[in-house]
Amino acid sequence: MPSCDKSKFGWWQSAVFYQIYPKSFQDTDGNGIGDLPGVISRLDYLQKLGIDGIWLSPVCRSPQADNGYDISDYCAIDPMFGTMQDMERLIEEAKKRNIVIILDLVLNHTSEEHPWFLQAKESRENPYHDFYVWRDGEPDRPPNDMGSVFGGPAWTYVPSLGQYYFHQFSPQQPDLNWENPVVRRHLYDTIRFWVEKGIGGFRLDVIDQIAKDPDRRITAFGPHLYDFLRELSREAFCEEGLVTVGEAWSANVDRAKIMSAPDGSQLSMVFQFEHIGLDQQPGKAKWDTAPLSLPALKECFSRWQRGLSGCGWNSLFLDNHDLPRIVSRWGNDGPYRVESAKMLAMMLHGMQGTPYIYQGEEIGMTNIRLPIEEYRDIEIKNLYAERLAAGYDPADVMASIYARGRDNARTPMQWEASPHAGFTDGEPWIPVNPNFSEVNVQAALADPDSVFYCYQKLISLRKELPVIRDGSFTLLCPEDEQVFAYTRDNETEHLLVICNFSSENTDFTVPEPFMKAEKLLCNYKETKETAGHLRPFEAMMLYYKD
Ligand code: GLC
Predict the structure, then answer these.
(1) Minimal CA–CA distance to 530: which of 503, 489, 498?
(2) Numbers of helices and strands, H then E, in the chain
(3) Which ligand 1 atom sits closest to the C-alpha of 378?
(4) Residues 399 and 499 reside in one and the same domain
(5) How many whole angstroms separate alpha carbon 396 and alpha carbon 289?
(6) Domain housing 104
(7) 294 C-alpha to center of ligand 1: Å?
(8) Alpha-carbon gap, residue 258 to 247, rounded angstroms
(9) Could you tell me the distance, in angstroms and rounded to a whole number, from the CA of residue 114 to the centre of ligand 1?
(10) pLDDT digits (tens, 9 = 90+) for 329-381
(11) Does residue 60 sit in the same domain as residue 76?
(12) 205 CB within 6 A, ligand 1
């Protein structure tokens, strides 16, 4: 094994990643489900965009109770997505284009169909029994009243054992017992299997939840989390250049500093979600939406930017497969779709961290509204049933689903204006957004002012201007309700990012040193005299060098 010196500046600190949700990216065999040959067929497009790596949502064998986040074999490709040869070809073809593949590892839980769990259920004496988290109990009297993320209890009874198993997600996703060193060893072996195949890194699903302690009702950041991560990093990720990003819904700045310490003893970076929760009612579920407070958003980003600078590393994202489309959420998916999609991109991509673009974000794809029967997500279905049973008005429940449902981001990638948006020749597993004839890759590539080219430019700026990677962050006008503006400065370079978050005109006083700065990027075609007057959702980046 190579020596472990992770203290050097990582290549991933000036890289940009692109998340592919394979089920919805590109189908090649007409079954309506995206596949690995489909991903390979789109690598040239991704190279044109300029990304350095692909985070591939799970493609391992799975009964798909939660779209692959329920793995039944960590070392096999699900036939729905293709074969191991397809995977090897993807790694190789991506490498030819200087793109690395980041695999999504679901290490907190397996599928209930994983052979380990099937064995574990056999008897209390079975060597695999202790791979999972069990507690004795009586039928209808679970060990405690903890609930699962997808609704219902976090405990499921197995009558033949007289025991309950613990699952933070659905009953089809039993939690692994990380306290058992044999479990950890098995997981490290599967990681090594993928490293040897040439995988460039890993996204670690709900990694902050592995060290659970249900007796104390602890799910995230349990007592041994940092020990587990240190061991995981030492035993499984000790490879020159591997990048690791841990999904941590409960991270705060202090926790993230430890998880992404520059000595590389834990992970390369975190996915933290504090900004994502700023438009929900305090203390309520994500379904209970509230208007976004721009000052709160700015304070949050600023605290993270300043807090991790020099002592940790953050990822930068607004969209992923669990979140509604950002343009429909904080932007405007009507008349200002293009302007606001670009504005959100510029707001994020001027910051320090490693950006992740979620498929379709780069062309400004939007949320969808479907009748309830057409949704596929386990979380949406459970929510609908639970809230109706609790007496909610169905129209209110649907409004929450339209605003926050995960299937918003899971509709097929819109490639062109032809039937099913060029995603499949068959019947797509979930409907294509009806706006595909206008919003699609082909149209975006043909229009020099499209959202696509804004992302392309932002990616190249990150590589050209060191200040984006290493500059200090200063928030301007923190109380302003419409404008998000900040500067980034290093010893010689100065960048100003100005974003109007509203559909109204507004004014902004450009700081004196930037009066004669170069305008690197603006999201409006027609230029105008003064930078200080902002049109709806207008954004710009100004830059000068000493
Ligand atoms: C993560 C995944 C999500 C999945 C859950 C359980 O949050 O991103 O899609 O449902 O973990 O694995």
Answers:
(1) 498
(2) 15, 20
(3) 10
(4) no
(5) 11
(6) 14-110+181-453
(7) 28
(8) 14
(9) 17
(10) 999 999 999 999 999 999 999 999 999 999 999 999 999 999 999 999 999 99
(11) yes
(12) yes
